[in-house]
């Protein structure tokens, strides 16, 4: 293998565009070292926007190899901020195009963290805010300060066992290429890179995917990220949240292999309607009411989605002995307002409660 030069990003990326985009017989996959060179060129901003877009689209049309994806993930990790390792935690990566209905994973994460299972949420701003809202935007709407330095974030996480990491703050190259990704308007290999970053080296991860092809790609990459147990979910809007009105495809990935299964909510006595699409303010209203333990009839569907998903995760990651025990614990935690208590502490510890920056009505304990 000839030595790969990463010093001249412009010429290097042109070379790899020709390699992956050519219709001639010479078109081929990049080696790991070549993918690393291309990733450095993009991450450092050495390539032009047009070259970056051309490369990403060529890779999307041809399909990325495992070596290529591994090279990009390794390089983008090198440009990331140096967070401490919190291996005993569950990493939950939000979809890049946001949520247009009730974000089940937020109250679920609060419930799991309230019983001592640390939760790491991470993601970027939504690329399509007109159709979906990011976890970042929703957490800010709940009064959480998400723009924290590394040491500030670690202090909050150590205290509470829950935290959100903004991808573009964690890894500045994602911010640099965001305009290109917005203009391309399609999923590219960087979406997979973002989901697989695992910023604090969590042993456990749960990821939402829209298609089985994305699931197949991730199941090969996650074990290389230090993940011991991963669940890949074809959930609501491509998220990790399972619906109540139909079965969902699940892939469990461990260091020893993977297994496919289907989860039918009816098996456990859960039935519900599809979650309704709603705007940000309505999502925040539902979140606040449910974590405060309200049991109004109009909240039944969203609340049951929370209980179902929390119960599944409690069992999947060995916090309870059975699914039924997980559902019972989740329901009890909601009734005792444990999610709400933790949310109040999270807002206060993140600093926004003292800064006076909240525009929403201050929540009280």
From TrEMBL:
GO biological process terms held by the UniProt record: L-tryptophan biosynthetic process
Limits of the Glycosyl transferase family domain: 97-336
InterPro entries: Anthranilate_Pribosyl_Tfrase (IPR005940), Glycosyl_Trfase_fam3 (IPR000312), Glycosyl_Trfase_fam3_N_dom (IPR017459), Glycosyl_Trfase_fam3_N_dom_sf (IPR036320), Nuc_phospho_transferase (IPR035902)
CC annotations in GO: cytosol
Gene Ontology molecular function: anthranilate phosphoribosyltransferase activity
Zinc in keyword set: no
Keywords: Amino-acid biosynthesis, Aromatic amino acid biosynthesis, Glycosyltransferase, Transferase, Tryptophan biosynthesis
Keyword Signal: no
Record-linked SUPFAM superfamilies: Nucleoside phosphorylase/phosphoribosyltransferase catalytic domain, Nucleoside phosphorylase/phosphoribosyltransferase N-terminal domain
Pfam families, A to Z: Glycos_trans_3N, Glycos_transf_3
Stretches assigned to the Glycosyl transferase family 3 N-terminal domain: 15-78
Identification of the protein by name: Anthranilate phosphoribosyltransferase
Taxonomic source organism: Paenibacillus elgii
């Amino acid at each position: 293998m000839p030595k790969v030069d990463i010093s001249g990003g412009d010429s290097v990326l042109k070379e790899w565009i020709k390699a992956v985009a050519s219709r001639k017989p010479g078109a081929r996959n990049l080696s790991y070292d070549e993918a690393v060179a291309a990733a450095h060129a993009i991450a450092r901003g050495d390539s032009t926007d047009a070259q970056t877009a051309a490369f990403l689209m060529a890779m999307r049309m041809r399909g990325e190899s495992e070596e290529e994806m591994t090279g990009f993930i390794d390089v983008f990790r090198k440009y990331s901020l140096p967070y401490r390792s919190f291996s005993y935690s569950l990493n939950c990566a939000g979809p890049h195009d946001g949520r247009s209905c009730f974000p089940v994973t937020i109250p679920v994460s609060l419930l799991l963290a309230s019983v001592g299972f640390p939760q790491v949420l991470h993601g970027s701003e939504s690329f399509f805010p007109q159709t979906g809202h990011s976890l970042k935007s929703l957490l800010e709407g709940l009064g959480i300060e998400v723009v924290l330095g590394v040491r500030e974030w670690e202090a909050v996480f150590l205290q509470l066992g829950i935290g959100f990491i903004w991808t573009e703050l964690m890894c500045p190259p994602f911010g640099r290429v965001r305009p290109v990704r917005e203009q391309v308007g399609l999923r590219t290999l960087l979406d997979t890179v973002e989901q697989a970053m695992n910023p604090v080296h969590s042993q456990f991860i749960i990821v939402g995917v829209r298609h089985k092809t994305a699931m197949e790609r991730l199941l090969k990459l996650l074990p290389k990220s230090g993940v011991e147990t991963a669940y890949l979910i074809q959930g609501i809007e491509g998220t990790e949240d399972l619906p109540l009105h139909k079965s969902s495809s699940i892939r469990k990935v461990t260091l020893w292999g993977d297994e496919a299964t289907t989860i039918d909510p009816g098996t456990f006595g859960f039935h519900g309607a599809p979650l309704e699409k709603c705007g940000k303010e309505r999502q925040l209203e539902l979140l606040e009411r449910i974590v405060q333990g309200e049991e109004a009839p109009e909240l039944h569907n969203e609340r049951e989605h929370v209980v179902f998903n929390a119960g599944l995760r409690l069992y999947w990651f060995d916090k309870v002995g059975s699914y039924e025990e997980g559902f019972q614990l989740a329901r009890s935690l909601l009734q005792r307002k444990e999610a709400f208590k933790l949310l109040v502490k999270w807002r206060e510890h993140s600093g926004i409660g003292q800064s006076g920056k909240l525009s929403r009505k201050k929540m009280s304990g």
